[in-house]
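Long-time lurker. I teach an intro course on protein structure, and each term I like to show students one example going from raw sequence to a predicted 3D structure in token notation. This year I'd like something fresh instead of my usual example. Would anyone be willing to generate the tokens for the chain below so I can use it in lecture? Attribution to the forum is fine with me.
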Amino acid sequence: MPRARAALLKKTTDSGKTTMTMQNKLVRLQAWQTFLKEKVLKDRRFIWFQRSVYGGTAVWAAFLMVQSAPYYQVIGQGEAAFKKGDYKDARHCFEEALSQCKTFGPDWRKDPRSIRATNNLGECCRLLGQYSEAEPYYRQTVSFSAQHFAASRPEPAIALNNLAMLQREEGHYQDADKSYAEALELWRKKIKLNDANLAKIQNGLAKLRQDQGRYKEAETLYEQSLLTSEKALGKNDVGNAYILSNLGGLYCDLGRYDDAEKYFNRSLYLDTHGLPANHPDTASDYHDLAYLMRLQGRLDEARPLYEKCLAIRLAAYGERHALIAKCYTGLADVDRREGRYVQAEAMLEKALAIQYEALGRRHPSVADTLDVQGLNFFDQHKIAAASDCFEQSLKIRQNLLASGHPDLLTSKFYLALCAEQAARAGKSGKAGKEAGAIASPDMKETVADLTRVLGAQHPTVLMARRMSAESESSPSRNGANGA
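-- Reply from a regular --
Happy to contribute to a lecture. Here you go:
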């Protein structure tokens, strides 16, 4: 008991000492506050210093407002034009905004206002098909975003995503893969937000996987992207339309045409209700549906959709844009399937001239157009000319795609079909000599490869089997509905 009492007494004494210590600290703090108030805050010299700081800050803020006013005026005008799909006017405004940025001091390139202008210029150039001009803007945006913004901010990852989008559209798949991977890694480790910007990165990588023929990965990524976007924006927001459109395109590639039409129509509904009339995104919806109708042989429905798309794109982009060439290719294939071969050839020549100028000769879209041109010649029994088109298409795809990609295998099949026809025609002289030197893949092996990759009931496989059977049964041809 005495020990317990002693311990309790010691504890009480210690508690008293602690209380006294805290009281002493509070007294000192109050004394310091009184001194600060009486000797500093009420001192006339401090009051004048304070006023001068406030005044200087106000003057500096006013200077920045005056300096930035022209910039914010033109950047706002440009972004309004961009939203309407008027990319030419938007580009002009963004160029003017960037010139205003040069007045922001020696480090103007690292200023967030400059970064915004260069990113917007890159987007305009890409959408206008001016890829060589877009790339420097994108790379500058990536570089200065990383220097100016913290890694936890979304801007560096968004800049990488935009560069990757350009690289994918140029057909530089390996470069695009690296940029997308870097953007996603940065987002997941540093940013950790499930918003519409993450959905864009997921969608971009899905589109790349689709282009590479990795369809299961693409579908998973598209579904993740749509879920992220709908959670961030709401299910009926126009910002979801591009993902729905891309899912429709994937299902076209997979031969799931009913699913494709459902997603294309959902995208068209959101765009027509959420965007101005005749917006380029709505034109893309018409193009998607026209492509689907064309694949299904619904040519009476496909043609007017292509024509609506073409009219909007001509008004938005002018005649030399890569997307105009896509319309011409689609219309040419409709003509081909209807037996209007001369009209189809004229349209294909226009498409290729635009693509060579805008995209170069090794772009995947050029391969698509060459396939249609080859089929147009093939349907007219011009086997040597058809084979030349398919050989060019195959070379482009061999440089871009994995050996088992369906597009590459389709080029091989067409080339093998030409060789089969040339061999049969060779029995009667000149036609065989013209095509006798064609180095062709084996047709049966190529059909087997297509079946393995796409499945026995895929429309491309069924088309290949039908054309193969026709070729083997008779030296004469009844027409092709491929591509």
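Some talking points for your students: The chain has a mean pLDDT of 85. Residues 44-84 form the longest helix (41 residues).
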